Request: fold
Amino acid sequence: MLTHTNAAADEISSRIDNLNIETERVWCGTIHSFLLEWVVKKYAGAIPRLVDGFSLISEYKQKKIIQSIEVDKKLESRLRYNSDEEGNAFVEPYCHQVDSKNKELLVIQEYNRIKEDNKYIDFDDIIKLGVDFLNNNSKICEHLSKLIGNIYLDESQDTSLIQLKALSYITRYDRVSVFIVGDNDQAIYQDLGVSVKNKDILKSELQLSELRHETLSGCYRSSKLLVDYYKKYSASHNDVISMRENDGRSPIIKDISKDELPKRIFNLISQYHSKYNGVDGVAIIGPDKYYLMGLINDLYDISEYFVYDFQSTNPLYCVRNTVFYELIKLVLLDVSVVNYQRRHSLARKIIDSIPELSHLNPLQLKRDLKEFQSVKNNFILWLKELYVFLEVKYQKSIKLETDYNISNAAASVAKLKAGMGAIKKIINKDKNVVSVSTIHGSKGEEYDYVITIGYHDKVVPHQSSYDKGNDYAQDIANRLMYVAFSRAKDYMNIFIDDRKAVSPFFIRELD
Reply:
């Protein structure tokens, strides 16, 4: 089962675990994770660049390297490294045009040199290395097609050409059954170079002999009045129909000052808590993490009664793509009948990731980890104690050591608000945890009550979208707002900063 984000993969995995069915032969993750686990790591010894080992660098580390190049080469420009839909690297400015193409080429060359000298690979390399290896090893492709009987591809509208190409080395064999789900109204990665793809493009890119197309127009998530509002942003002009019995409530659109916003949102969350005895059905959604970070810090300053599950303040996001992501979850996840399958799946994944633990079965690993005790609330100190415990309990592991160093480095530079008590609540989906997400990160999620902010000019969409024309900017803005607003099931509050110009594409009229 393949999807676009780690959050979506976690949600799908959680839902599968709750079905209490046999999941030993079910794998769920992103396309990047699939290629990393099934191709890049497994066949690293046959990939020249990886023969002597490699380290996967985080997005944060990548930004730091680019910044160091800017300073070292005196470029006098803030740049970001990216890749297009076909995997070709490019550099673009944050706010203005780079005055010379030579600067762009210089950054790419220097960045690649630093990666090679330090045996680094980034997330784009995972795709490119995986595609190159599969392209030159047809027997491996055929073996994978026999091993994988079914592929479920979620969020197909956000899948890039190079990702589809990677999958095509498996799907081209007719023995693989492929099921694809997508919604082109939710294609929000065009600004990052991912084109909208119809059925014919998907069929061609995946080299499928047949692909049947079916359209679903009924919405079982949102109430009628919410659907009537957000379908105004539909790029395809689909007449989405709510299948809910009641009309529900229209969204509430409110202009408010930035200073009043945190207190107003806190009061709304508190009112929801009083009514439903929990806030696990509430989400705060904004255009980007920088826009949300200040708000979340302000909410924590008001009260720490509620926990905010947000990537910039939650340490769990620092350890993604390391084995400590699963280890922390397994240690902190409550032992219960409900969590049995989820804990078993985590234990199995940990054992498969660490060669030195291959002699254990999931039950033994779970029993061993129950011995670990720590009173530290600081994540970095707690993580160190867990690592020392593992090093003493089991033989020295290069995988554990490498992943610990990556996790510790990422956590040391992050502005973390959540302590271990909050992390335990997040992992166990405590009723006092509020979900916080960017619009992109909210894809695939649904909430009873959505509180959303930031629909201002040059924010939704970003200034870069206007550079490609007003029609393009409107298309991007509509898709972003369609995604954000369609997360709500029953209630939605939309707050506009009264000191900023509202996005020209935002619709205030509810009728």
